[in-house]
Design brief:
Elements (H helix, E strand, L loop, with lengths): L9 H11 L24 H11 L14 H18 L3 H15 L8 E3 L2 E6 L8 E5 L1 H4 L7 E5 H8 L3 E8 L6 E8 L5 E7 L4 E2 L5 E5 L1 E7 L2 E6 L14 E6 L8 E5 L6 E7 L7 E7 L5 E6 L8 E2 L6 E7 L2 E6 L17 E5 H7 L6 E4 L5 E8 L4 E7 L2 E10 L2 E7 L6 E7 L6 E6 L6 E5 L6 E6 L9 E9 L5 E9 L8 E4 L14 H6 L6 E5 L9 H5 L7 H16 L8 E6 L1 H12 L6 E5 L18 H4 L6 H10 L14 E6 L8 H12 L4 E6 L10 H20 L2
Parallel strand pairs: 32-33, 32-34, 34-35, 35-36, 36-37
Antiparallel strand pairs: 1-2, 2-3, 3-4, 5-6, 6-7, 7-8, 7-9, 10-11, 11-12, 12-13, 14-15, 15-16, 16-17, 18-19, 19-20, 20-21, 22-23, 23-24, 24-25, 26-27, 27-28, 28-29, 30-31, 31-33
Length: about 725
């Protein structure tokens, strides 16, 4: 299906024409076939002119960067009307929506918990609680089939009372009692949020308590009357990425403007954030994390009352604190580290530790201990601590295992914990005041199962599991590899009907950035809406992710990013060559950085795809650093205003700047959110606008609420799922 749909307003079209100043031609005149296969008419002159202006570095579409500008929102609403009109009119849509909603709102979901003060807390949404319930129970009750929950905060009631579209963003509670919390609430789902002090005992907000108005940033407790805060309320204390760079000490009963500065970074930083480290009933330690770039940080140790001079930790810029276990500060390394010249070198991907009190007393780096040194196909999947053990997920070739560590006079020792094989393993929750540790396991056809770790035998006891949301009988899972352009072997998983000999409709998903690992996962929605209807699903572990440690990520940074795109192209070509699918039946989907990935697939290899879905994408790579949080990602993508070479490379991959009016592109579905204050909706808006003027096959949907996930509640998530799978069925299954 390649239907051109026009949804430009008259005013928007005039803006484009005025910017381009090109003569009009009759866009309906049929011409002979061009050299581009499939083209049967000349592209509209106004679209060609607009595209030329964009290619020449002009910015005629900046009105779409006004997040809630009248013209931009008119464009979005009219685009939504057209797209929803087509997709929701499909007789399959209602069925898909209802199936997705049933799964998303089901009481059979696992209520994942965090442990605070011996109680197990959970945030829960369902059909009756759209905004959600923050609730708690006991361990004994939780281990039963029907836990008895005590509601601590009804967010639906609060939203109705206050007339706000509250979206839950979490709670930071003061140990060891955890009876005072700072709740983070977003109006509509944006990253900027309100922070309010809450009394758990009375289940109410504290009258005259701490309140931070809507902003990006964070808080952490020093004691019951003192917070460390970092806010972007003052533009003079806000980075170009939109995050705070000043950490302050705020005392109860004083105005926030009177908070004392503890540490100040620079406006050129990504941001600076406070942190509290504590293991069990041990002393609390306070830190400030100054992120100079997305991947490089300076860590500052602050005095107990945060009134002394900060001390810089002598650790690599590319490293991350993971936990405090006893006195040991546990760090993961994203670059190799030789702390002492001529001494031992610890490789990138290793996990190490040293005594934090010893460092605080001397200012010198103490002895470094190794917990884990990585193998060539390994990465760390997660770390959690109990009172007596540190648990670490170690991924081998994209599936998980679990190890339990203890620290003694001879350093770290470990024991393997027996886990299900060939599944993803995740730390679900741990409690550093007790021996409570929950672990989760899942696979493409294996529903999520939550296990409690037996502290004596270190065995896993199943606690809760998802139902089988789709019929997995006859569905096979296999892992293959494709050879990328530079010879690197790229693993990918195929989930498809057993014994399928003919090519079939296939959805390829990838991310490829920011050291984010994609592992096997159970999706009831994908299974019910796609697998059961004969669809094949492929998950590609391309470079840019963290599946094989920091080197796998760093291979695709900045001007090396084409490797990431070559990886996905190689997987797509292998799927076609091996007869899994055909180009007309192959769709590709990704979100955020994955939205950029799919945008590049659209412009670089349109011949490979029958459909492309680009969710909350980055698509204007010459202005990404000027939009919302975009400046924080320059260490990943490049610095277009500082490096001519990086700007030239970004120009070469930027989807918005590489549209060819003469090319026959596959159908494209762009989705974004007005409330997304991380990736600017203008990326998707501009691409949709340009392609529509060019007469290309494009659908656009902008959720007016929802933030970076493009969904403020479960019903909106179900709607997005139904729209996407309806689109895929129309393009890949209908022929």
């Amino acid at each position: 299906m390649r239907h051109a749909r026009r949804f430009l307003t008259a005013s928007a079209a005039l803006l484009a024409l005025a910017a381009c100043e090109q003569p009009e031609t009759d866009t309906e005149t049929e011409t002979a076939e061009t050299e581009q296969a499939g083209m049967t008419q000349d592209p509209p002159a106004e679209g060609v002119a607009l595209n030329t202006a964009i290619q020449n570095g002009e910015t005629p579409l900046t009105f779409l960067e006004e997040v809630e500008g009248e013209a931009a929102l008119t464009f979005a609403r009219e685009a939504n009307e057209k797209s929803l009109g087509r997709l929701q009119a499909d007789p399959r849509y209602d069925t898909l929506f209802n199936e997705a909603l049933e799964i998303l709102q089901s009481d059979a979901r696992i209520p994942y918990v965090s442990v605070r003060g011996g109680a197990l807390y959970n945030f829960w949404q369902d059909s009756e609680h759209t905004h959600g319930l923050w609730r708690r129970t006991t361990l004994e009750s939780y281990l039963t089939d029907s836990p008895q929950w005590e509601v601590v905060l009804d967010l639906d009631a609060l939203a109705e009372e206050e007339g706000r579209n509250w979206v839950w963003r979490g709670a930071d509670c003061l140990p060891p009692a955890y009876d005072r919390c700072i709740l983070t609430l977003s109006d509509g789902g944006s990253d900027a949020a309100v922070r309010r002090e809450f009394d758990v005992a009375t289940q109410s907000f504290v009258d005259g308590g701490f309140v931070v108005e809507e902003t990006k940033g964070s808080t952490t407790w020093i004691d019951e009357d003192t917070l460390m805060i970092a806010t972007a309320l003052d533009p003079a204390e806000t980075t170009s990425s939109g995050y705070p760079f000043v950490v302050k000490r705020w005392s109860r009963g004083t105005p926030i403007e009177a908070a004392e500065t503890i540490l100040s970074g620079d406006a050129s930083d990504v941001g600076v954030w406070p942190a509290r480290l504590q293991h069990g009933d041990g002393p609390a330690w306070f830190m400030a994390v100054e992120a100079e770039t997305f991947f490089e940080s300076t860590y500052w140790l602050l005095s107990g009352e945060t009134r002394g001079e900060p001390i810089r930790l002598p650790v690599p810029a590319k490293s991350s604190p993971q936990a405090l276990f006893g006195e040991q500060l546990v760090m993961s390394l994203e670059e190799s580290w030789t702390p002492v010249e001529g001494g031992e070198t610890y490789p990138a991907g290793a996990v190490v530790s040293f005594s934090l009190p010893e460092f605080a007393a001397t200012g010198e780096l103490p002895a470094v201990h190794v917990l884990h040194a990585p193998g060539p196909r390994q990465s760390i999947g997660g770390i959690g601590t109990t009172a007596d053990r540190l648990f670490m997920v170690i991924n081998e070739n994209v599936t998980g295992s679990l190890a339990a560590f203890t620290f003694g006079e001879d350093g770290w020792t470990s024991e393997a914990v027996e886990t299900p094989q060939n599944l993803a393993i995740n730390m679900a929750a741990t409690d550093d005041h007790s021996d409570i540790a929950f672990v989760q396991a899942e696979g493409f056809t294996t529903p999520d199962t939550l296990y409690l770790v037996d502290s004596e035998s270190l065995s896993l006891e199943p606690v809760k599991s998802l139902p089988h949301w789709f019929d997995a009988e006859g569905i096979t899972v296999e892992q293959r590899e494709a050879e990328s352009a530079d010879g690197t072997m790229i693993p990918y998983f195929i989930v498809r009907p057993e014994g399928q000999d003919e090519p079939g409709p296939t959805l390829l998903y990838a991310y490829g950035g920011f050291q984010v690992s994609l592992t096997p996962n159970y999706s009831g929605v994908a299974g019910k809406l796609w697998y059961e209807r004969g669809g094949t699903y492929v998950l590609a572990n391309i470079r840019g992710g963290g599946e094989f440690g920091p080197a796998w990520h760093q291979a695709g940074l900045r001007t090396n990013r084409q490797r990431i795109y070559d990886d996905l192209i190689a997987v797509a070509e292998a799927l076609i060559e091996d007869g899994i699918t055909t180009s007309d039946q192959l769709g590709v989907m990704g979100g955020s950085n994955g939205g950029l990935l799919t945008g590049v697939m659209y412009t670089q290899r349109p011949d490979l795809w029958g459909a492309v879905i680009s969710q909350v994408p980055l698509l204007d790579m010459l202005r990404f650093h000027l939009l919302l949080a975009g400046a924080s990602w320059q260490d990943e993508y490049g610095f277009p205003d500082q490096s001519p070479a990086e700007r030239d490379f970004l120009r070469s991959i930027s989807p918005l700047h590489n549209v060819d009016p003469e090319t026959d592109y596959p159908p494209l579905f762009l989705l974004t959110s007005t409330k997304d204050d991380r990736v600017h909706p203008a990326h998707a808006r501009k691409m949709a606008y340009l392609l529509e003027v060019l007469g290309k096959d494009v659908l656009y949907y902008e959720n007016i609420e929802g933030g970076h996930s493009a969904a403020a509640n479960l019903e909106e998530t179900a709607r997005r799922n139904a729209l996407e799978y309806t689109f895929l069925m129309q393009e890949l299954m209908d022929g």
